[in-house]
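Example record

The entry below shows one chain as it appears in the dataset: sequence first, then structure tokens.
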Amino acid sequence: MKLNSDIVFENLKKTVPSEMCGHRVVELSLGRPVFCVGNERAFHAGQLYVAKADRLPQRPVIEKGAVIICVGESLHFAYYGERCCVIRIRENENLFSVFNLIQGIFNKYDAWNEQLQEILNSNAGVEKMVECSRSIFENPIFVINADFRFIAYSGYADPSEEGREDTVMGPAGSDNLRLPALGRFLELSEPSFHVKEPQLFNLPGSSTLNVNLFKNEDYIGCLTIDYRLRAHLSGDTALARHLADMIMLATQKYPAVLYNEKGALRQALQGAVDGLPADAEQSMALAAANLGREYVCAKMQFSNRFAQLPAGYIRNMVEESFPQSVAFEYDSSVVAFIETKTLYGRDGTYRDKLQDMMKGFIQSMDMRVGVSDSMDDLNSARLFYRQACAALKNGNLVHFKRRYYTFQDYALMEMVVNSLGELSAELYYSKGMRRLAEHDASASHVSYLETLRVYLDQNMSITKTASLLYIHRSTLLERLSRIKKELDTDLENPDERLRLQILLKAIQIHEAIRVKQDGQPL
């Protein structure tokens, strides 16, 4: 494996006091050392020379990219330093010992590269690549995919070691970035996901070296060195790039390396929500997921404060919290199909436990959730997604503070609103209904429409209606007489009653929305 002058110097000075000056080349282009015997006419790029200072030729041709390690002092250092990289070692060091030290440095990185090649040629295991690289970088290393899920992590020897919670790793058993770490990562990295060169970011109390991973010019993840144990060295940058190149080769050999097993099912469900037919692989994934399982669809929307969080990260958090669930980004929100059989409680339902588990997301991530009825066939995903959308839309309109909305709580509202089509409720009024509305609009303290609505809701029970309106029975009878006269409709006809109830419910919904939009309490 070829190295560069930074790597050689940083390893050499651990054993031998050294100084480096002159022009450096950061690419891994430097071959193993050769002795300079004193009759050289040229020093070539990409070659490492070891020499006694007094054996250096006076004015040879020096190509940019050559590196010379000199033992002792020479009057010619200024000439050499202007043209190449020079590493100077004090006079009393043995030339052959220095040569052997440099050979040992090359041996170390050759052994590392051979391990990486062996892993690539066997199972292309990214986790093994990261693990064997720990001794090279002497710091924790991790690889995440484009959804900010851990693919590999080489951290402290003991995962319970004190201070682990300060790392980027999530809670025990999690393969997600911790939320604070994700925030820091995004703050530094988000504008740079397209950058192909390694980037060093300084964090409070630490720093990270990030190398973005690409496949066909698309960002697929990131390799990160977390400098918790020793400081960043200049040579690390080229070595990290080399490791990233090996990881990208692994993804080319095994495309699933940076993806998880839910990919086909996720694509199938997203296609189903879009109304697209599933291909053979997706149909098999849907069939397997349907076996003996029951799901609800949840649509999650986030406040502006959390809207910039990557949807992939939120998706991972949902799938981690709800076993057998599948989530994906859709229509500026996150849609999840959550398996319910594991959530059933002693009451024989899943609803309370699902809502309790959702509270953590709602509170910590400031989100609103619409939840569909349960389904046992994911091929119907589109219909239940529409239920979740309706629950979220209607709940957000009339009960903004609740944040968690189930379809059945708003099914009547959705049905009534849809039954009117594109026409406003007023266009369905009979002449009698218009007379009642004109009465209410005349600043009367008595609402005929509200009285009629309560009366019909109570199955035309005089006793129950009077009780709910807090008026005397005789007062209600007198008011109903005037209403029936103005309405001029047979309330004994069930079809007429149904039409009136739909219109009155639509008026009630419209009024609730108006009050909420005006900022008044519901």
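Notes for this example: Residues 157-173 have pLDDT under 50 and may be disordered. The longest helix spans residues 95-122.
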